[in-house]
Amino acid sequence: MSRQNDLGIAETHTVTISPPGGLQLECGESLQAVTIAYETYGKLNRDRTNAVLIVHALSGDAHAAGFHHGDRKPGWWNGFIGPGKAFDTDKYFIMCSNILGGCKGSTGPSSIDPSTGKPYGLRFPLISIGDMVHCQKLLVDHFGIERLLSVAGGSMGGMQVLAWLTRYPGQVRSAIPISTAIRHSPQQIAFNEVGRQAIMADIDWKSGDYYEGPPPARGLSVARMVGHITYMSDISMHDKFGRQRKDCIQPFKFDPDFEVEGYLQYHGENFVKRFDANSYLFITKAMDNFDAGRGKPLHHLLRGIDAKVLVLAFKSDWLYPTYQTKEIARACKLAGIEASYCEIDSTYGHDAFLLEIEEETHLITHFLKKVYNGYEVMTDNAGI
Description:
Elements: E1 13-17, E2 23-24, E3 30-31, E4 34-41, E5 51-54, E6 93-97, E7 112-113, E8 118-119, H1 129-142, E9 150-154, H2 156-167, E10 174-178, H3 186-201, H4 217-231, H5 234-240, H6 259-274, H7 277-289, H8 298-302, E11 308-314, H9 322-334, E12 339-344, H10 352-355, H11 357-373
Helix pairs in contact: 1-2, 3-4, 3-7, 4-6
Protein backbone atom coordinates (compact mmCIF):
# COMPACT_ATOMS: atom_id res chain seq x y z
CA MET A 1 0.00 0.00 0.00
CA SER A 2 1.25 3.48 -0.85
CA ARG A 3 1.51 6.13 1.83
CA GLN A 4 -0.02 9.61 1.58
CA ASN A 5 2.19 12.71 1.53
CA ASP A 6 5.16 10.33 1.55
CA LEU A 7 7.50 12.48 -0.52
CA GLY A 8 7.14 15.51 1.71
CA ILE A 9 8.50 18.83 0.47
CA ALA A 10 9.69 18.80 -3.15
CA GLU A 11 12.03 21.35 -4.65
CA THR A 12 12.31 22.49 -8.25
CA HIS A 13 15.86 22.90 -9.53
CA THR A 14 17.17 24.48 -12.70
CA VAL A 15 20.17 23.85 -14.90
CA THR A 16 21.30 26.03 -17.78
CA ILE A 17 22.93 24.18 -20.66
CA SER A 18 24.84 25.77 -23.54
CA PRO A 19 25.50 23.14 -26.22
CA PRO A 20 28.40 23.89 -28.60
CA GLY A 21 26.93 26.06 -31.33
CA GLY A 22 23.72 26.49 -29.36
CA LEU A 23 20.62 24.29 -29.19
CA GLN A 24 19.73 23.54 -32.81
CA LEU A 25 15.96 23.39 -33.28
CA GLU A 26 14.03 21.44 -35.89
CA CYS A 27 12.68 24.69 -37.36
CA GLY A 28 16.23 25.64 -38.37
CA GLU A 29 16.74 28.28 -35.69
CA SER A 30 18.76 27.90 -32.50
CA LEU A 31 18.88 29.03 -28.88
CA GLN A 32 22.24 29.98 -27.42
CA ALA A 33 21.42 28.37 -24.09
CA VAL A 34 18.43 26.71 -22.46
CA THR A 35 17.37 26.59 -18.84
CA ILE A 36 15.61 23.41 -17.77
CA ALA A 37 13.51 23.24 -14.61
CA TYR A 38 13.30 19.78 -13.07
CA GLU A 39 12.47 17.77 -9.97
CA THR A 40 13.75 14.37 -8.86
CA TYR A 41 12.40 11.80 -6.40
CA GLY A 42 14.17 8.76 -5.02
CA LYS A 43 17.87 7.97 -5.42
CA LEU A 44 19.96 7.16 -8.46
CA ASN A 45 21.70 3.84 -7.92
CA ARG A 46 25.44 3.37 -8.28
CA ASP A 47 25.35 2.07 -11.86
CA ARG A 48 22.67 4.63 -12.87
CA THR A 49 20.27 2.02 -14.21
CA ASN A 50 17.11 2.86 -12.25
CA ALA A 51 16.19 6.24 -13.77
CA VAL A 52 12.63 6.83 -14.99
CA LEU A 53 11.73 10.01 -16.87
CA ILE A 54 8.19 11.32 -16.42
CA VAL A 55 7.06 13.68 -19.19
CA HIS A 56 4.12 16.01 -18.71
CA ALA A 57 1.08 17.05 -20.73
CA LEU A 58 0.15 20.49 -22.10
CA SER A 59 -0.52 22.29 -18.83
CA GLY A 60 1.87 20.32 -16.63
CA ASP A 61 5.31 21.19 -15.27
CA ALA A 62 8.27 19.71 -13.43
CA HIS A 63 6.33 19.44 -10.15
CA ALA A 64 5.00 15.92 -10.60
CA ALA A 65 4.86 14.80 -6.95
CA GLY A 66 5.24 15.90 -3.36
CA PHE A 67 4.43 19.35 -2.02
CA HIS A 68 6.05 22.72 -2.44
CA HIS A 69 6.21 24.94 0.64
CA GLY A 70 2.78 26.43 1.26
CA ASP A 71 0.99 24.26 -1.30
CA ARG A 72 -2.37 22.75 -0.46
CA LYS A 73 -2.19 20.29 -3.35
CA PRO A 74 0.68 18.00 -4.39
CA GLY A 75 2.26 17.61 -7.81
CA TRP A 76 0.13 16.69 -10.80
CA TRP A 77 0.94 12.90 -10.75
CA ASN A 78 1.44 12.51 -7.01
CA GLY A 79 -0.80 9.45 -6.84
CA PHE A 80 1.66 7.57 -9.04
CA ILE A 81 5.05 8.64 -7.67
CA GLY A 82 6.37 7.68 -4.24
CA PRO A 83 7.21 4.69 -2.03
CA GLY A 84 5.09 1.70 -3.01
CA LYS A 85 3.40 3.53 -5.85
CA ALA A 86 3.50 2.84 -9.60
CA PHE A 87 6.80 4.70 -9.91
CA ASP A 88 8.25 3.42 -6.65
CA THR A 89 10.83 5.84 -5.25
CA ASP A 90 12.20 3.08 -3.01
CA LYS A 91 13.37 1.38 -6.23
CA TYR A 92 13.59 4.01 -8.94
CA PHE A 93 15.05 7.46 -9.48
CA ILE A 94 12.24 9.56 -10.91
CA MET A 95 12.89 12.68 -12.99
CA CYS A 96 10.45 15.22 -14.40
CA SER A 97 11.32 18.45 -16.22
CA ASN A 98 9.31 21.39 -17.49
CA ILE A 99 9.31 21.28 -21.28
CA LEU A 100 11.08 23.70 -23.59
CA GLY A 101 8.51 26.39 -24.39
CA GLY A 102 6.90 26.09 -20.97
CA CYS A 103 6.42 28.81 -18.39
CA LYS A 104 7.37 27.11 -15.12
CA GLY A 105 11.13 27.52 -15.07
CA SER A 106 12.27 26.23 -18.46
CA THR A 107 13.14 28.49 -21.37
CA GLY A 108 10.02 29.65 -23.17
CA PRO A 109 8.40 32.69 -24.80
CA SER A 110 8.11 34.47 -21.43
CA SER A 111 11.88 34.08 -20.83
CA ILE A 112 14.26 36.97 -21.41
CA ASP A 113 15.75 37.16 -24.89
CA PRO A 114 19.45 37.92 -24.26
CA SER A 115 19.66 39.92 -27.49
CA THR A 116 16.95 42.40 -26.41
CA GLY A 117 16.72 42.14 -22.62
CA LYS A 118 12.96 41.65 -22.97
CA PRO A 119 10.71 38.56 -23.02
CA TYR A 120 10.84 36.70 -26.31
CA GLY A 121 7.09 36.77 -26.98
CA LEU A 122 6.52 35.82 -30.61
CA ARG A 123 10.24 36.19 -31.29
CA PHE A 124 10.65 32.82 -29.61
CA PRO A 125 11.34 30.19 -32.31
CA LEU A 126 8.77 27.59 -33.25
CA ILE A 127 9.49 24.47 -31.23
CA SER A 128 8.64 20.81 -31.73
CA ILE A 129 8.02 17.80 -29.56
CA GLY A 130 11.43 16.60 -30.76
CA ASP A 131 13.03 19.81 -29.46
CA MET A 132 11.42 19.23 -26.06
CA VAL A 133 12.83 15.71 -25.96
CA HIS A 134 16.25 16.98 -27.05
CA CYS A 135 16.30 19.19 -23.94
CA GLN A 136 15.28 16.25 -21.77
CA LYS A 137 18.13 14.28 -23.31
CA LEU A 138 20.53 17.07 -22.30
CA LEU A 139 19.19 16.86 -18.73
CA VAL A 140 19.59 13.08 -18.65
CA ASP A 141 23.16 13.48 -19.92
CA HIS A 142 23.74 16.07 -17.19
CA PHE A 143 23.03 13.34 -14.63
CA GLY A 144 25.42 10.95 -16.36
CA ILE A 145 22.63 8.51 -17.19
CA GLU A 146 23.42 6.48 -20.30
CA ARG A 147 20.13 4.60 -20.56
CA LEU A 148 16.74 5.29 -18.98
CA LEU A 149 14.89 2.41 -17.40
CA SER A 150 11.71 3.94 -18.77
CA VAL A 151 10.07 7.09 -20.06
CA ALA A 152 6.37 7.56 -19.33
CA GLY A 153 3.66 10.13 -19.91
CA GLY A 154 0.11 10.77 -21.04
CA SER A 155 -1.47 12.99 -23.69
CA MET A 156 1.27 15.32 -24.99
CA GLY A 157 3.56 13.42 -22.63
CA GLY A 158 2.80 10.30 -24.65
CA MET A 159 3.98 12.11 -27.79
CA GLN A 160 7.27 12.80 -26.04
CA VAL A 161 7.52 9.12 -25.13
CA LEU A 162 7.19 8.20 -28.82
CA ALA A 163 9.79 10.83 -29.73
CA TRP A 164 12.21 9.30 -27.22
CA LEU A 165 11.70 5.87 -28.79
CA THR A 166 12.35 7.04 -32.33
CA ARG A 167 15.08 9.66 -31.70
CA TYR A 168 17.09 8.01 -28.92
CA PRO A 169 16.21 4.32 -29.23
CA GLY A 170 19.41 3.08 -27.60
CA GLN A 171 18.82 5.12 -24.47
CA VAL A 172 15.48 3.76 -23.29
CA ARG A 173 14.87 0.25 -22.01
CA SER A 174 11.11 0.72 -21.97
CA ALA A 175 8.37 3.20 -22.76
CA ILE A 176 4.85 3.87 -21.44
CA PRO A 177 2.78 6.05 -23.79
CA ILE A 178 -0.68 6.76 -22.37
CA SER A 179 -3.78 8.27 -24.02
CA THR A 180 -1.91 9.71 -26.97
CA ALA A 181 -1.53 9.54 -30.74
CA ILE A 182 1.08 9.07 -33.45
CA ARG A 183 -0.18 12.34 -34.94
CA HIS A 184 -3.13 14.65 -34.36
CA SER A 185 -6.38 14.14 -36.21
CA PRO A 186 -8.17 17.09 -37.87
CA GLN A 187 -10.54 17.24 -34.88
CA GLN A 188 -7.69 17.50 -32.39
CA ILE A 189 -6.05 20.23 -34.47
CA ALA A 190 -9.41 22.03 -34.66
CA PHE A 191 -9.85 22.15 -30.88
CA ASN A 192 -6.34 23.56 -30.46
CA GLU A 193 -6.96 26.15 -33.15
CA VAL A 194 -10.09 27.39 -31.37
CA GLY A 195 -7.99 27.89 -28.24
CA ARG A 196 -5.27 29.74 -30.13
CA GLN A 197 -7.78 31.99 -31.87
CA ALA A 198 -9.43 32.83 -28.54
CA ILE A 199 -6.06 33.99 -27.18
CA MET A 200 -5.11 35.98 -30.26
CA ALA A 201 -8.54 37.65 -30.41
CA ASP A 202 -8.06 39.04 -26.89
CA ILE A 203 -7.33 42.78 -27.08
CA ASP A 204 -4.67 42.35 -24.38
CA TRP A 205 -2.66 39.83 -26.41
CA LYS A 206 -0.96 42.62 -28.39
CA SER A 207 0.71 40.22 -30.84
CA GLY A 208 2.43 38.47 -27.95
CA ASP A 209 4.03 41.57 -26.39
CA TYR A 210 1.82 41.85 -23.32
CA TYR A 211 4.39 41.22 -20.59
CA GLU A 212 4.52 44.83 -19.40
CA GLY A 213 0.75 45.02 -19.05
CA PRO A 214 -2.25 42.77 -18.39
CA PRO A 215 -2.14 39.31 -19.98
CA PRO A 216 -4.80 38.12 -22.44
CA ALA A 217 -6.72 36.59 -19.56
CA ARG A 218 -10.10 36.31 -21.23
CA GLY A 219 -8.73 34.57 -24.29
CA LEU A 220 -6.57 32.12 -22.35
CA SER A 221 -9.48 31.39 -20.01
CA VAL A 222 -11.73 30.49 -22.95
CA ALA A 223 -8.97 28.30 -24.42
CA ARG A 224 -8.75 26.42 -21.13
CA MET A 225 -12.54 26.05 -20.94
CA VAL A 226 -12.57 24.43 -24.38
CA GLY A 227 -9.78 22.12 -23.25
CA HIS A 228 -11.62 21.07 -20.11
CA ILE A 229 -14.65 20.04 -22.14
CA THR A 230 -12.49 17.67 -24.18
CA TYR A 231 -10.79 16.22 -21.10
CA MET A 232 -14.05 14.91 -19.63
CA SER A 233 -16.64 12.51 -21.01
CA ASP A 234 -20.39 12.81 -21.41
CA ILE A 235 -20.86 10.34 -18.56
CA SER A 236 -18.41 12.06 -16.21
CA MET A 237 -19.98 15.47 -16.85
CA HIS A 238 -23.45 14.05 -16.21
CA ASP A 239 -22.30 12.35 -13.00
CA LYS A 240 -20.46 15.45 -11.76
CA PHE A 241 -22.94 18.17 -12.73
CA GLY A 242 -26.11 16.83 -14.34
CA ARG A 243 -28.31 19.85 -15.02
CA GLN A 244 -27.84 21.17 -11.52
CA ARG A 245 -28.35 24.91 -11.25
CA LYS A 246 -26.36 27.29 -9.10
CA ASP A 247 -28.03 28.37 -5.85
CA CYS A 248 -27.55 32.11 -6.13
CA ILE A 249 -29.48 34.36 -8.51
CA GLN A 250 -27.12 36.01 -10.96
CA PRO A 251 -27.31 39.80 -11.54
CA PHE A 252 -26.61 39.47 -15.27
CA LYS A 253 -28.80 37.43 -17.60
CA PHE A 254 -25.90 35.45 -19.03
CA ASP A 255 -23.93 34.76 -15.88
CA PRO A 256 -23.62 31.01 -15.16
CA ASP A 257 -26.93 29.36 -14.30
CA PHE A 258 -25.66 25.77 -14.34
CA GLU A 259 -22.96 24.23 -12.19
CA VAL A 260 -21.06 23.06 -15.27
CA GLU A 261 -20.82 26.67 -16.48
CA GLY A 262 -19.41 27.80 -13.16
CA TYR A 263 -16.94 24.90 -13.19
CA LEU A 264 -15.57 25.86 -16.59
CA GLN A 265 -15.27 29.53 -15.70
CA TYR A 266 -13.54 28.73 -12.41
CA HIS A 267 -10.92 26.54 -14.09
CA GLY A 268 -10.43 29.02 -16.90
CA GLU A 269 -9.81 31.88 -14.49
CA ASN A 270 -7.44 29.82 -12.33
CA PHE A 271 -5.45 28.67 -15.35
CA VAL A 272 -4.65 32.29 -16.21
CA LYS A 273 -2.92 32.67 -12.84
CA ARG A 274 -0.39 29.92 -13.52
CA PHE A 275 0.13 29.70 -17.29
CA ASP A 276 1.47 31.93 -20.03
CA ALA A 277 -0.72 32.52 -23.08
CA ASN A 278 2.20 32.51 -25.51
CA SER A 279 3.37 29.17 -24.12
CA TYR A 280 -0.11 27.84 -24.84
CA LEU A 281 0.22 28.97 -28.46
CA PHE A 282 3.68 27.49 -29.01
CA ILE A 283 2.98 24.20 -27.23
CA THR A 284 -0.33 23.46 -28.95
CA LYS A 285 1.24 24.21 -32.33
CA ALA A 286 4.07 21.76 -31.49
CA MET A 287 1.46 19.12 -30.68
CA ASP A 288 -0.40 19.69 -33.95
CA ASN A 289 2.80 19.48 -36.00
CA PHE A 290 3.98 16.29 -34.30
CA ASP A 291 4.24 13.13 -36.38
CA ALA A 292 5.97 10.25 -34.61
CA GLY A 293 6.68 8.58 -37.95
CA ARG A 294 8.07 11.80 -39.46
CA GLY A 295 6.24 11.22 -42.71
CA LYS A 296 6.65 7.45 -42.70
CA PRO A 297 4.65 4.62 -41.10
CA LEU A 298 5.74 4.53 -37.46
CA HIS A 299 6.77 0.88 -37.54
CA HIS A 300 9.51 1.75 -40.05
CA LEU A 301 11.23 3.93 -37.43
CA LEU A 302 10.66 1.41 -34.65
CA ARG A 303 12.34 -1.55 -36.36
CA GLY A 304 15.37 -2.87 -34.56
CA ILE A 305 14.66 -1.00 -31.33
CA ASP A 306 15.47 -3.01 -28.20
CA ALA A 307 12.82 -1.69 -25.83
CA LYS A 308 9.64 -2.93 -24.21
CA VAL A 309 6.46 -0.87 -24.52
CA LEU A 310 3.30 -0.65 -22.42
CA VAL A 311 0.49 1.23 -24.20
CA LEU A 312 -2.44 2.38 -22.07
CA ALA A 313 -5.82 3.70 -23.24
CA PHE A 314 -9.24 4.48 -21.76
CA LYS A 315 -12.55 3.54 -23.34
CA SER A 316 -14.30 6.88 -22.65
CA ASP A 317 -11.44 9.05 -23.93
CA TRP A 318 -12.88 10.86 -26.95
CA LEU A 319 -10.10 13.45 -27.20
CA TYR A 320 -7.56 10.67 -27.89
CA PRO A 321 -9.87 7.80 -28.86
CA THR A 322 -8.68 4.25 -28.46
CA TYR A 323 -8.24 3.69 -32.19
CA GLN A 324 -5.28 6.09 -32.07
CA THR A 325 -3.68 4.33 -29.14
CA LYS A 326 -4.16 0.96 -30.82
CA GLU A 327 -2.25 2.30 -33.83
CA ILE A 328 0.78 2.77 -31.56
CA ALA A 329 0.58 -0.78 -30.22
CA ARG A 330 0.07 -2.13 -33.73
CA ALA A 331 3.13 -0.25 -35.00
CA CYS A 332 5.21 -1.76 -32.19
CA LYS A 333 4.03 -5.26 -33.14
CA LEU A 334 4.81 -4.71 -36.82
CA ALA A 335 8.30 -3.53 -35.83
CA GLY A 336 8.90 -6.62 -33.72
CA ILE A 337 8.91 -4.72 -30.43
CA GLU A 338 7.67 -6.52 -27.33
CA ALA A 339 4.55 -4.51 -26.51
CA SER A 340 1.47 -4.76 -24.32
CA TYR A 341 -1.77 -2.91 -25.00
CA CYS A 342 -4.22 -2.36 -22.14
CA GLU A 343 -7.56 -0.61 -22.50
CA ILE A 344 -9.05 0.47 -19.17
CA ASP A 345 -12.82 0.72 -18.71
CA SER A 346 -13.16 4.19 -17.23
CA THR A 347 -15.86 6.89 -17.42
CA TYR A 348 -13.49 9.81 -16.75
CA GLY A 349 -12.66 10.54 -20.39
CA HIS A 350 -9.19 11.84 -21.22
CA ASP A 351 -8.64 12.83 -17.58
CA ALA A 352 -8.60 9.14 -16.72
CA PHE A 353 -4.83 8.94 -17.13
CA LEU A 354 -4.58 11.29 -14.13
CA LEU A 355 -7.35 9.67 -12.09
CA GLU A 356 -7.41 5.88 -12.59
CA ILE A 357 -4.65 5.39 -10.05
CA GLU A 358 -5.38 1.84 -8.88
CA GLU A 359 -5.74 0.27 -12.33
CA GLU A 360 -2.75 2.05 -13.85
CA THR A 361 -0.61 1.37 -10.81
CA HIS A 362 -1.23 -2.36 -11.09
CA LEU A 363 -0.21 -2.40 -14.75
CA ILE A 364 2.78 -0.07 -14.48
CA THR A 365 4.16 -1.71 -11.33
CA HIS A 366 4.33 -5.17 -12.91
CA PHE A 367 5.64 -3.82 -16.22
CA LEU A 368 8.52 -1.88 -14.62
CA LYS A 369 9.38 -4.77 -12.33
CA LYS A 370 9.81 -7.10 -15.31
CA VAL A 371 11.82 -4.54 -17.26
CA TYR A 372 14.09 -3.77 -14.31
CA ASN A 373 14.69 -7.43 -13.51
CA GLY A 374 15.01 -8.47 -17.14
CA TYR A 375 11.95 -10.71 -17.25
CA GLU A 376 9.89 -11.20 -20.39
CA VAL A 377 6.92 -8.84 -20.53
CA MET A 378 3.79 -10.81 -21.37
CA THR A 379 2.01 -9.21 -24.29
CA ASP A 380 -1.71 -8.61 -24.60
CA ASN A 381 -2.99 -8.44 -28.16
CA ALA A 382 -6.64 -7.99 -27.24
CA GLY A 383 -8.31 -5.45 -29.46
CA ILE A 384 -5.22 -4.64 -31.53
